Each structure stands twice: as C-alpha cells, then as structure tokens.
C-alpha cells in the first residue's frame, strides 16, 4: 500500500507564508510589543547602540506570517507584505536593521 508515497518525496513540505512582516526600522520605537506577541520567537529587539533598540526578524525560517507583530505595532513599523520571497531574502542578507 505504497501508491501515494512518491508525491512530495524527498521534498520538505514546508509551508511558505502568504504574507510576511516588513519592518520599517526608522519608525520602530523599540517598545517590544511585537516581540511579546510573536508565537514563534522570530522577531527580536536588536541593540544598535542607539537610544532605542530596533525590532528585526532574526529568524525568518520560523516566521509563520501570522501578522500578530504587525497588529501589535501601534506606530505601523511592521507591515505585512505579499512580497514574501523578497522579505525573507532581506532578513537572510541583513542580520540587523540599519
Ligand atoms: S511593536 Fe513596533 S515600535 Fe514596538 S518594537 Fe515592535 S516594531 Fe518597534
Ligand atoms: S508574522 Fe507572526 S510569526 Fe512572524 S514574526 Fe510576526 S508574530 Fe512572529
């Protein structure tokens, strides 16, 4: 009874989120609300040696695109984008906000 096993064989069946958080570091005030609500620990505050720490997606692989970080941010520093590939690439290339 192995007729169905060839599908997805050898491929990790990981779901890519439909939307992904796009952080606008300039707008971030470092309150940490987004970090608190994230169920997967994908977003963290980064110390850049400035007055306030800035939120960043430090673990794009674990982000499920739930949007809770965006909803929690009262200043609109986290927007959900449909350009998921670009967003993931951004966080993989840049390990911290500028
Ligand atoms: S909730 Fe918004 S302002 Fe607060 S740390 Fe997160 S991105 Fe920055
Ligand atoms: S979209 Fe969800 S999982 Fe991804 S960083 Fe925001 S709160 Fe965390």
Automatic annotation (TrEMBL):
The keyword Metal-binding applies. Residues 19-48, 53-83 form the 4Fe-4S ferredoxin-type domain. Signal peptide: none annotated. GO terms for molecular function: 4 iron, 4 sulfur cluster binding; metal ion binding; oxidoreductase activity. Pfam families: Fer4_7. Keywords: 4Fe-4S, Iron, Iron-sulfur, Metal-binding. PANTHER family: ADENYLYLSULFATE REDUCTASE, BETA SUBUNIT, FERREDOXIN III. This is 4Fe-4S ferredoxin iron-sulfur binding domain-containing protein. It comes from Methanoplanus limicola DSM 2279.
């Amino acid at each position: 009874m192995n007729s169905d096993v060839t599908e997805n064989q050898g491929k990790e069946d990981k779901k890519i989120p439909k939307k992904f958080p796009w952080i606008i570091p300039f707008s971030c005030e470092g309150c940490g609300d987004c970090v608190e609500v994230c169920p997967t620990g994908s977003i963290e505050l980064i110390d850049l040696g400035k007055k306030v720490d800035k939120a960043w997606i430090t673990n794009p692989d674990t982000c499920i695109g739930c949007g809770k970080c965006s909803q929690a941010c009262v200043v609109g520093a986290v927007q959900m984008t449909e350009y998921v590939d670009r967003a993931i690439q951004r966080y993989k290339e840049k390990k911290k906000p500028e």
